[in-house]
Specification:
By secondary structure, the protein is mainly α. The chain is built from six helices and no strands. It has one domain. The longest helix is centred in the N-terminal third of the chain and has 40 residues, at 2-41.
Length: 170
């Protein structure tokens, strides 16, 4: 009897775990990016280097003139990903809590969510590669070290903390 129970409910538990993880990371990311966008829109152009990461890297004014627009664009793209992910997360929860959940619909929704996560990862990687072209070797090494110290596995959403807020190297 317990073998049959696990056969039917184990996939549901896995999906529920996935949803909770996505909900936590998506909610944190959405809140973080929203705060960043609000603070970006209220900044004056003569405020200097507002990003704690780039202050810690001690970027020059010339480097900052190149990096700041790219950082703002990254934050806006992440905000868009988070909004879309929130919609899909809610749809997934709706499917799961139907009287007779459609397992095929759940699988399709999981695939959509995975694709959005992969696309967001590509955006972040592209941003990092573009930043490398602007940073000095010393700054690049320091950024690499910061990323290793603040890796995603150390806690949900930690990767985003290096882009504008919450670095531990301030």
């Amino acid at each position: 009897m317990s073998r049959i129970y696990w056969k039917y409910f184990m996939p549901m538990l896995i999906v529920l775990s996935l949803i909770l993880n996505i909900a936590f990371i998506g909610g944190w990311s959405y809140r973080f990016v929203g705060e960043q966008l609000r603070s970006v829109s209220s900044r004056s152009s003569n405020e200097g280097i507002w990003c704690p990461l780039h202050r810690a890297l001690n970027v020059s004014d010339e480097q900052w003139r190149i990096l700041e627009p790219k950082l703002i664009m990254l934050q806006q793209e992440i905000a868009q990903f988070c909004e879309v992910m929130e919609v899909h997360r809610r749809e997934m929860i709706g499917i799961i809590f139907m009287d007779n959940p459609d397992l095929d619909a759940i699988e399709k929704k999981k695939e959509v969510i995975r694709n959005h996560q992969a696309n967001m990862q590509e955006v972040v990687i592209s941003h990092l590669l573009a930043e490398k072209k602007v940073l000095t070797n010393k700054q690049e090494a320091q950024l690499f070290e910061m990323m290793l110290e603040n890796n995603v596995c150390a806690g949900p959403g930690r990767m985003f903390s290096i882009f504008g807020q919450g670095t531990t190297s301030e």
